[in-house]
């Protein structure tokens, strides 16, 4: 019933709402459409009239220019007579400021204002005809300021002059006072709500009426996007670029002229009427809707809440089921009074039993538990029932195939009788067999690793004591022989003695280095957040003799991060890298070392750059291997294990190390990364 009632009430409410909305929409749209159509028709008529007036005015000026062009071509008139004719033609047209005649070089040949003699060869109306002498049409210039009176704005309407051979010989132009022209042509729109704008096809404004001198000459993107097709009138609504008001706009192009006439009317009053009408109609519709809504609103709200709760409950159950399946988690329920047991399909899958063949009871379940685990399971269950606390069990359970499988059970009492006796126990079951096997393998591997570490420690002891002791004896006895037989040995014999002692010393040094390499990670301090600059400073303290001897220059950044590192290993890392940068240089060369630190997404990048001997690209892979040397011991001392130690320290802390070098004598850069966050030691 509820399922049918709620859609029915909602449908009735929607139907009434739709009818009210349709009535409201028709009334509002009809009023709005009628009002805007009336305004559009009005501005369209004004624009047609204005377009005709502008066209007639342009044709009138062009006829005057054609007449003057004929007079200018006559050889019987001198300049004075031609200027008199210009003034005569100008008299009935107050918008014409002057007539101008220029020769083909832009020199003034006649001017209706003879008292003036301006330079006009650079004017746009001359330059355009000079560049387009065969255009065959009149040209309207952009708005210009008069050079005799910079307060006067005008446009020039000009024509190119040609001789009988068709050669360009000059320009005849009429300077039109824009303010006067706007006053004459803008009488149709003198009231405050209308405006007339004249522009070229690119949106450059000739004038706006009511007169707005600062708009003259401006380039309007709004107008440029509303030019229209020749011979047609167009209408639209825009936001005025002049006063920011919403306006009804009608516009059209003038035939044979690159001129567009715009007539607009302020929409404020009409929009106010439309808004007022909309508000009245809205209030009527809302009152009717509110009256109807009160009749069913409360019931609809209650039903909707009920359905929402039902949906949420179903979604919650579905999420729980999906999560349970993904986790392979079984759910069981035990009636403690009857011993009846219920569990879901997940537990059937875990144990592999068939439903008809396996009796679901507490005793049947206990019979599947491994005899060694059963006492502990029963003890924990009884303790949980007494304490009313949840329990956690891990035990082996026999599956249908006869194999023993590790299970994890969780549960708690969820209901009691009036005397406080537990009635119902519910919980979950999880197959943890693979986890327990992995634990066993991990324990075995840990034990093997501990044995390996013990063997390694024993090896380190052998290296440090048992192997070094014979070397020290060899070295000592050779030195005694050398002293005893000092007077009996020739040069070759002494050299052979030196080879023996030197070889023993170098082998001892290599054993010490190998011992240090094996101790990395075992003898180091615990990993802690440490200022990296402090590690460098302590490393440089050990290197002071080499720094002073070579006068090494070390450039460090100002900011140093704190890093998670074993302190003594961090010092050894910087000491080895800085020591190499000082050692591997050309003789008599002052080491220059620069340290760079860069913050990356998950790491800090450290680079130690030097001006030393560099490294050939084909040798760089050998650098970080144990006992790998690129130079003879006679050139540079060392065991060839220092960079291997650096690599082991960096990799143990979750980073990597590499070298960059352009080649021999090009310097080197040893770079390594360390994690920004604490990482487990490798």
UniProtKB/TrEMBL annotation:
Class of enzymatic activity (EC top level): transferase
Name its cellular compartments.
Cell membrane
GO MF annotations, alphabetized = phosphorelay sensor kinase activity
Histidine kinase domain segment(s): 462-678
Question: What is the recorded membrane topology of this protein?
Answer: Multi-pass membrane protein
Xref: PROSITE patterns? HIS_KIN (PS50109), PAS (PS50112)
Q: Name one GO cellular component term.
A: plasma membrane
Q: Which SMART domains match?
A: HATPase_c, HisKA
Residues spanning the membrane: 285-303
- Main location class: membrane
Q: What is the name of this protein?
A: histidine kinase
**Which source organism does the UniProt entry give?**
Marinospirillum alkaliphilum DSM 21637
Q: What is the lineage of its organism?
A: Bacteria, Pseudomonadati, Pseudomonadota, Gammaproteobacteria, Oceanospirillales
